[in-house]
From TrEMBL:
InterPro entries: AAA+_ATPase, ABC_transporter-like_ATP-bd, ABC_transporter-like_CS, ABC_transpr_LolD-like, Cell_div_FtsE, P-loop_NTPase. Transmembrane segments: none annotated. It is a peripheral membrane protein. Keywords: ATP-binding, Cell cycle, Cell division, Cell membrane, Membrane, Nucleotide-binding. It comes from the Bacteria. Belongs to the ABC transporter superfamily. This is Cell division ATP-binding protein FtsE. Homodimer. Forms a membrane-associated complex with FtsX. Pfam families: ABC_tran. Part of the ABC transporter FtsEX involved in cellular division.
């Protein structure tokens, strides 16, 4: 699903974020990316959906060779990827259902299919009765559920989540993680950057630890391994 071969990323200001990363993530895996602040986790995540471009090396995501990908083909790549952010990034003027539907409207899906699929994913994330609420009428946890629904509505091959529980209380964080587990159980690959020690140590999955721009640990049933 995802391969990185000798990947380096140096920003224009001279900061070296990643230094020779090699990793392979198989279809259907659930992977945590952990490490101290400034370790390179966000760059690691953003490279996968071409939010930033690598300096050197090779990245393959679901068959796409990212360093050779033309700008006009980036939307095709991103149709294969659902992204969930810490701060939800919902459109405030749209209802929950409309926020989710928007991801399908962008790819010009038929109206009937949009309506059916939006209902399906809103039930999946436990918000079947909140379709017509605006984001400011929803709790933080509900907003993140809408964001997750939006990320999966187009049946992506992989979900990339960057600190998806970072703004949520512990109980709500667990609710969101159970949603991610359901999605993963259906076969979707999930790569999640997180600082949530309790979740990583309890929901044991593969753990990739990044420090100083390098992978220092890659364990199949790993632990968080940091005090923060």
């Amino acid at each position: 699903m995802i391969e990185m071969h000798d990947v380096w990323k140096t920003y224009p200001n001279g900061v070296s974020a990643l230094n020779g990363i090699n990793v392979k993530i198989d279809r259907g895996e659930f992977v945590y990316v952990v490490g101290p602040s400034g370790a390179g986790k966000s760059t690691f995540i953003k490279l996968m959906y071409r939010e930033v471009r690598l300096t050197k090396g090779r990245i393959l995501v679901n068959g796409y060779n990212l360093e050779r990908l033309k700008e006009h083909k980036i939307p095709l790549l991103r149709r294969q990827i659902g992204v969930v952010f810490q701060d939800f990034k919902l459109l405030p003027q749209l209802t929950a259902a409309e926020n989710v539907a928007f991801a399908m409207e962008v790819i010009e899906a038929p109206t009937k299919k949009i309506r059916q699929r939006v209902n399906e994913v809103m039930e999946l994330v436990g918000l079947g009765d909140r379709l017509n609420q605006l984001p400011n009428q929803l709790s933080g946890g509900e907003q993140q559920r809408v964001a997750v629904a939006r990320a999966v509505v187009n049946n992506p091959a992989v979900i990339i989540a960057d600190e998806p529980t970072g703004n949520l209380d512990p109980e709500t964080s667990w609710e969101i993680m159970h949603v991610f587990k359901k999605i993963n159980d259906q076969g979707t690959t999930i790569v999640m950057a997180t600082h949530n020690k309790e979740i990583v140590n309890t929901m044991k999955r593969r753990v990739i630890a990044v420090e100083g721009g390098r992978i220092v640990r890659d364990e199949r049933q790993g632990a968080y391994g940091y005090d923060d």
